Amino acid sequence: MPALLILLLWGSTAPGAGGAWLEACLEPKVFTVGTYVEEPVAIEQEDVTLAGRLLRPNRPGPHPGVVLIPGGGRDDRLNYPPRFVAARLARCGIAALIYDKRGTGRSDGDFGAATFEDLVADALAALRVLRRQDGVDAGRVGLIGFSQGGRLAPVVAAREGGVAFVVSISSPFTSVRQTRRYALEQAVQRLRLPVARRDSLLALWDAYLARLEAGASTRDLDTLILRLPATLPAALRPPLSTAPPRGPLFNSIGLDTTTEWQGLRVPFLALFGAQDQVVPVAASLRRLREVLGEEAALEVLVVPGVDHSFQYPGWGSRRFRFEEVVVAWVLSQTGLLGECALQLEALQARATPQPRGGPMPGFEACTSPAPATGG
User: Fold this and answer.
1) Same domain, 144 and 281
2) How far is residue 370's CA from residue 11's CA, in Å, rounded to a whole number?
3) Are 57 and 90 in contact (CB under 8 A)?
4) Is 243 within a domain?
C-alpha cells in the first residue's frame, strides 16, 4: 500500500498563528473556555423540532460553517464524535452545528418510525439553519458525516446545491442491505462457529433481509429463528415477526442512496479504516468512484491497521487521530490557510499506534506567510 503524506502549510497570519501546524486549535484540551461559544439552536423540520448546538469561534466573522451529521443508531454515545470534531472546528475558526437525531436526545420525533428520507430532510433543515446564522458565510458551508451520516451527506449536497464540500468518515456507499450483510458476516466470523452453523446462520439472515427489502412477512422464518442456540448473541439473531426491527436502517433496508448524487461536483474527502468490520471499505470505494466519476474532486484516505472508529485493534486506547486530518482538509477548502496549501497525497498512516502527544507523523509546518482571512 503506498504511503500517504499530508503536508500542512500554515502561514504565520492564519487563524491560530503561533508557529507550529494546528497547535493553536488542535491541542488535546479542546474545551478551553473562551476559544469558542456554544449556544442552543432549534431546527424546525415539519412536525418535529431537533435540538441543535452551534459552536462558533469567539471572534468576529463571517466564518465558514459545517453541519455534522451523526452516525446510525440511537445511543447517545454516537453524538460524541460529532461534538469532538465540532469543538476543534470552532477553535480553528469554523462554525459547527451538531444536533440530536429525531427521536433521540432532546429532539422530537419517533426514531423507530424514521427512514433515511427523514434523516436527509433533517440534515437539510440543519444546513439551512446554519446558513441563516449571523456571522456565518452561507457560501462556505459544508457537511461532515459520520458512518451512516456520511452516506446521507452527498444526498443533502445533491438536493440543496451550493454545498462547499463533503467529508465522509467510515461511511458505507454500498446499498443498505449489502452493508448490513457485511457487518453481520464479520460479526458471525468472529464467533468462530463451525462452518456449517456459520453458513446456515448467514443463509437465515439472507432470507430475513430479502423479506424486509421486499416488504414481505418474516413469519415463515420464526421457527428457524427459535431453533437458534440460546448462546447466540441477541444482536446476531434475526428478530421474530412478533417483534420486528425498527429504526432508519431497517426501515430503509432496500435503499441505495448513491443513485441520487451521481456526478456530484463538490470537493469530497472520504476517510476509511482498512480493518473496518462494519463498512465494506473496498466495495464502498468502488461504488464511490463509480458514482462520482473520473472528473470528481475526490480525495481518499484508507488508514492501515485501524477499525471503524480509527482504533488500533489490540492496542488499547491508541488510535489514529482522524480529526486532525479532517479539520486541516476543511481549513484548506474554506480558504483559512491563505496562500498555503494542504496536499493529501501520501499521509504516513502507519499501522502501529502513534505516540501520545506531539504532532501526527506526516505533518509539517509552513514557514511562508499567508494572508489574513475572515474567520
Assistant:
1) yes
2) 4
3) yes
4) yes
Q: Are residues 60 and 29 in the same domain?
A: yes
Decide if 353 is inside a domain. Answer: no
In a domain, 33, yes or no: yes
% of the chain exceeding 90 in pLDDT? 63
CA distance 75 to 72: 9
d(CA 289, CA 296): 8
Helix (H, G, I), strand (E, B) or coil at 347: strand
Exposure b/e, 2-38, CB count within 10 A at least 16 = b: eebbbbbbbbeebbbeeeebbebbbeeebeeeebbeb
pLDDT tens for residues 294-325? 888 999 999 888 999 999 888 777 888 888 88
Residue 372 pLDDT class (50, 70, 90 cuts): very low
Closest by CA position to 276, among listed 267, 288, 266, 285? 285
This prediction has a pTM of 0.86
Look up the CATH number of the domain holding residue 274: 3.40.50.1820
User: Which range of residues forms the domain containing residue 229?
Assistant: 177-251
**Segment 85-109, tens digit of pLDDT:** 999 899 889 999 999 999 999 999 9
Of the residues 251, 285, 304, which one is the last residue of a structural domain? 251
